[in-house]
């Protein structure tokens, strides 16, 4: 059994956790990171790959805008190409009511400093002539884009290791506790003593919070993803729709990635699987948006496990029971873009006790009076 | 109580024999097959109107082929037969059993089954060598499919290369079809065959057939050259010649217009993966396969396995296993057992297993060749990923496991989902890390088992 003593222990190995490990090392703190499988292979690695501010809960916009600045410099920081491209994110309206939703959101977003462009039918056809007839209008966020989710988390993990952090993969955490002097985290093959503890355990964040007497209703959320073989360039922007029942982008390689609906989550083995009927449904909806994809072949479907909170925004902030414990979990299907900035915020919280970003909406206390189970359902907007 | 629904996937030797046993017991099983006509790969039938004499197509196996084809025709009206239908997804159904998503002549369909018999067969194992992606290079199986299903040869002057007892057989079939097999090259060493010979003699009839094909080749002036190295296909836009180095180090070159290559067989086990079967590493053939008991049970109580899809044994073994596995299904359904029949099959299968082990020893998967694969050689041809990219991911990007290697490099992420490159990529990764190949794991299967169109075909 390995024993480590560090300044900060991190439970979880997603992008936010690995980015936090990097940020801690940059401030000189020693770090151990405990991941049950492989770093960046959970929700961080299997998501759609959208890097978007548009469509987020307004409470998330300050974080998301701060995160967006980091994405421009990510290749340089990580020393490898994570495939980020500011292709723009366009949210489509398929009815007058949808358009009204987009207009309202654009007004609200403008107050937060996010400039969106509303496109009517003619402007939209001129911009994207390949869209199907069901589309009536759209809202474009030109600064948003997409990236390759499979490489971002692992790249942060490697940078953390290069900087001297101690990531341990295949090391599921069995229990963690605070004994007055510090934290003890017991994982498979390793026990870590630390002064501070970060709970970045994703779908299991609620379990970890429970060890410290805090309620956090996290439901498993598994997006249902589909990808085609590589195709000639067609889909110029990352696409979402009002209502969120389908989302589509084309990778630099040419594959069209599409999603919509939910897979099944097996919390017992920590794995999620796509559902065939859901995949077929997303394929049909994609065809309605982009009829030119009629002859594409689907080569793979997949899912992954994220954690969703009842109000669809994450828990980020200090514990209200245990000094030294900081939470960041429950990103509710849209944490990919936030990952890098959450790493910085976690480091601010541990080293300074506060963050430059407004975190009040994400405090764990909002669930203190929560009673009963929570089941996640509905669409995951992109 | 309604009759249980048993779905047999695959109508090759194993699937047909399993179906026969179930029908004899009074069941009406589903038989789902990608092929438009039953028979599988080895006994693949030409489409109606393009038939050729069975002796030309199947050689010594013509009688067996005819028997199985007749069996398929006799079974068809007594079962729910779904030819031309791909099972592309398998999911658990509550409270028990499975939901199969299929794509067939009528488009998408969903089939509920209480138990599954997976008889999904095998395909060639590929190993990259210079020029292997040039047009005109086929797998040995593809060369046979062209011949059996379409009455076509892959070329006029065909070179056959690789590792395995099927090379001289296909050379013979091509010669009979009027093509010219210009050379038959075996990369496995001569001593491996010499050493395995006594155990191969345990099945004298089968050994004799193999020897006959080799002798027939030698009489045509085409002896099998064993222990060759440095195979390279030459050509600018397609196959023009094959070059190699013989066991004594001399270079050779022969003009040809097509190459058929095979480095043994790999189980097509994606269906078992999706059905939730546990996999084990099979050290002799160096591949992960669904765990199968001698009686045909998988690790999943409602999934049964038979044939090459869960362990390479060849067509004769597949027939025996199909029969044996179906008897297990019947036993589990509470039907009366025929202990004598079970015992007879178990004896035959045990004898075949000894022969197969000797055959695998005679034609080992030439994993040592991965060292000779140059850094600029493409390994994953769907995505154009080179051996060098895989090696760099291992040494510079902490790729210590196959799914991580896939995520970082895209190897195995393309149209074939690693069915072609997966084994070679695993060997390269393991060699680079100097660890046993089983420690790098295997690519997880995901639906669809093979590509499906975005728009439902109708």
UniProtKB/TrEMBL annotation, chain B:
Pfam families: Fer2_BFD, Pyr_redox_2
PANTHER family per the UniProt record, alphabetical: ANAEROBIC GLYCEROL-3-PHOSPHATE DEHYDROGENASE SUBUNIT B
Domain (FAD/NAD(P)-binding): residue spans on this chain: 6-322
UniProt keyword terms in alphabetical order: Oxidoreductase
Protein name: (2Fe-2S)-binding protein
GO molecular function terms attached to this record: oxidoreductase activity
All copies of domain BFD-like [2Fe-2S]-binding, residue ranges: 378-431
Domain of life: Bacteria
């Amino acid at each position: 059994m390995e024993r480590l003593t560090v300044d900060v222990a991190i439970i979880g190995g997603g992008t936010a956790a690995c980015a936090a490990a990097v940020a801690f090392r940059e401030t000189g703190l020693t770090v151990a990171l405990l991941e049950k499988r492989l770093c960046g292979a959970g929700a961080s690695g299997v998501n759609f790959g959208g890097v978007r501010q548009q469509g987020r809960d307004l409470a998330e916009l300050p974080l998301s805008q701060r995160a967006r600045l980091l994405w421009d410099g990510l290749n340089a920081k990580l020393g490898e190409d994570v495939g980020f491209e500011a292709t723009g994110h366009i949210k489509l309206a398929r009815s007058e009511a949808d358009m009204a939703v987009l207009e309202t959101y654009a007004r609200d977003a403008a107050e937060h400093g996010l400039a969106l462009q509303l496109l009517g039918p003619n402007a939209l056809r001129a911009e994207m002539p390949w869209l199907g007839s069901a589309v009536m209008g759209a809202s474009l966020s030109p600064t948003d884009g997409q990236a390759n989710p499979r490489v971002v988390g692992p790249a942060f993990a490697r940078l953390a290791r290069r900087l001297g952090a101690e990531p341990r993969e295949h090391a599921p955490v069995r229990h963690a506790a605070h004994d007055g002097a510090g934290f003890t985290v017991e994982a498979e093959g390793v026990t870590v003593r630390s002064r501070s503890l970060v709970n970045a355990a994703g779908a299991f964040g609620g379990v970890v919070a429970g060890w410290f007497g805090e309620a956090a209703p996290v439901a498993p959320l598994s997006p249902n993803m589909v990808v085609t073989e590589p195709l000639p360039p067609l889909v110029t922007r990352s696409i979402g729709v009002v209502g969120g029942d389908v989302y589509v982008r084309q990778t630099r390689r040419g594959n069209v990635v599409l999603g919509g609906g939910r897979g099944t989550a097996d919390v017992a083995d920590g794995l999620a699987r796509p559902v065939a009927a859901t995949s077929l449904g997303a394929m049909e909806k994609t065809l309605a948006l982009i009829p030119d994809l009629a002859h594409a072949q689907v080569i793979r479907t997949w899912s992954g496990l994220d954690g969703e909170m009842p109000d669809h925004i994450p828990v980020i902030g200090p514990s209200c029971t245990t000094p030294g414990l900081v939470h960041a979990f429950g990103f509710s299907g849209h944490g990919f873009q936030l990952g890098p900035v959450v790493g910085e915020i976690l480091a601010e919280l541990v080293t300074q006790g506060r963050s430059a970003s407004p975190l009040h909406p994400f405090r764990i206390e909002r669930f203190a009076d929560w009673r009963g189970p929570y089941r996640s359902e509905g669409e995951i907007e992109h | 109580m309604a009759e249980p629904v048993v779905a047999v996937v695959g109508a090759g030797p194993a699937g047909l024999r399993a179906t026969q046993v179930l029908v004899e017991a009074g069941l009406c099983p589903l038989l789902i097959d990608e092929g438009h006509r039953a028979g599988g790969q080895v006994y693949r039938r030409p489409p109606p109107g393009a038939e050729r004499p069975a002796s030309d197509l199947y050689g010594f196996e013509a009688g067996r082929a005819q028997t199985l084809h007749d069996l398929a025709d006799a079974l068809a009206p007594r079962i729910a037969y779904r030819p031309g239908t791909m099972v592309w997804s398998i999911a658990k159904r509550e409270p028990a059993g499975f939901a199969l998503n299929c794509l067939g002549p009528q488009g998408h369909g969903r089939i509920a089954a209480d138990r599954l018999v997976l008889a999904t067969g095998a395909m060639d194992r590929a190993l990259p060598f210079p020029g292997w992606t040039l047009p005109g290079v086929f797998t040995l199986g593809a060369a046979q499919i062209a011949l059996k299903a379409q009455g076509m040869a892959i070329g006029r002057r065909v070179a056959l290369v690789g590792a395995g007892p099927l090379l001289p057989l296909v050379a013979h079939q091509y010669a009979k079809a009027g093509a010219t097999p210009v050379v038959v090259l075996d990369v496995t060493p001569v001593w491996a065959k010499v050493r395995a010979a006594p155990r191969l003699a345990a099945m004298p009839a089968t050994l004799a057939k193999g020897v006959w094909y080799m002798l027939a080749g030698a009489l045509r002036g085409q002896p099998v050259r064993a222990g060759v190295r440095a195979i390279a296909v030459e050509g600018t836009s397609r196959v023009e010649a094959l070059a190699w180095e013989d066991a004594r180090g001399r270079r050779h070159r022969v003009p040809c217009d097509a190459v058929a290559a095979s480095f043994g067989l790999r189980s097509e086990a994606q269906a078992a993966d999706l059905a939730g079967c546990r996999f084990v590493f099979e050290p002799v053939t160096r591949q992960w396969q669904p765990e199968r008991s001698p009686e045909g049970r998988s690790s999943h109580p409602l999934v049964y396995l038979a044939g090459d899809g869960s362990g390479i044994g060849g067509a004769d073994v597949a027939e025996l296993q199909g029969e044996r596995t179906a008897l297990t299904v019947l036993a589990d359904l509470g039907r009366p057992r025929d202990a004598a029949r079970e015992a007879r099959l178990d004896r035959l299968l045990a004898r075949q297993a000894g022969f197969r082990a000797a055959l695998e020893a005679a034609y080992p998967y030439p994993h040592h060749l991965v060292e000779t694969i140059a850094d600029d050689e493409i390994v994953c041809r769907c995505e154009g990923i080179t051996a060098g990219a895989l090696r760099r991911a291992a040494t510079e990007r902490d790729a210590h496991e196959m799914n991580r290697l896939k995520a970082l490099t895209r190897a195995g992420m393309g149209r074939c989902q690693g069915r072609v490159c997966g084994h070679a990529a695993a060997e390269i990764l393991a060699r680079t890390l100097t660890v046993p190949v089983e420690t790098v794991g295997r690519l997880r299967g995901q639906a669809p088992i093979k590509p499906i169109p975005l728009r439902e075909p109708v």
